[in-house]
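Page 37, continued from 36.
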């Protein structure tokens, strides 16, 4: 089993006087469908507070404003302006996070599909995981990615991936993690 040891990364949180947002990591967060925009904003705040330099929020709710009051450091994009594949190329993120408030529609699935094919590390959360559970072809593609991929399921999402129920996941959480492991 993979042992997680990330304390050595703490030194990266200390910025040098000549550093700027463009050299300390560009993250793209994809989600925030209608009535679920708060989740993508919260994920953006998590990125901000953990040191990402350039934070792009791809919000799937086409009515969402292009600025988030109080957080001018976020670059807010509307998902309706370009194809997912072209948008990912244009933004050129160092890491993609997809799923918070993503929704379960065809547009969401297209964004997940394009993200799976993109070359950067990928974190799949929330509805991104639910889409994988519904479409095993997407899950197979995730398993075959060359870049780092992290899934962050809660017990309900894990149960959908493993075709069981949350109670079974809670009984053997380590076994569930090993069952979900795609590497």
């Amino acid at each position: 089993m993979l042992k997680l040891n990330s304390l050595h990364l703490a030194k990266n949180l200390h910025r040098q006087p000549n550093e700027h947002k463009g050299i300390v990591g560009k993250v793209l967060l994809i989600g925030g469908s209608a009535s679920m925009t708060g989740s993508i904003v919260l994920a953006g705040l998590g990125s901000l507070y953990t040191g990402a330099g350039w934070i792009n929020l791809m919000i799937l709710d086409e009515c969402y404003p292009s600025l988030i009051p109080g957080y001018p450091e976020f670059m807010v994009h509307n998902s309706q302006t370009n194809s997912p594949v072209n948008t990912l190329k244009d933004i050129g993120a160092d890491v993609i996070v997809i799923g918070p408030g993503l929704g379960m529609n065809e547009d969401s699935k297209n964004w997940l599909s394009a993200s799976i094919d993109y070359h950067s590390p990928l974190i799949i959360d929330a509805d991104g995981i639910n889409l994988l559970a519904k479409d095993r072809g997407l899950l197979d593609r995730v398993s075959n990615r060359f870049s780092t991929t992290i899934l962050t399921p809660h017990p309900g999402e894990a149960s959908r991936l493993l075709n069981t129920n949350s109670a079974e996941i809670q009984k053997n959480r380590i076994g569930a993690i090993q069952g979900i492991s795609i590497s």
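Residues 23-115 form a domain with the Rossmann fold fold (CATH 3.40.50). Flag for discussion at group meeting. The longest helix spans residues 37-49.
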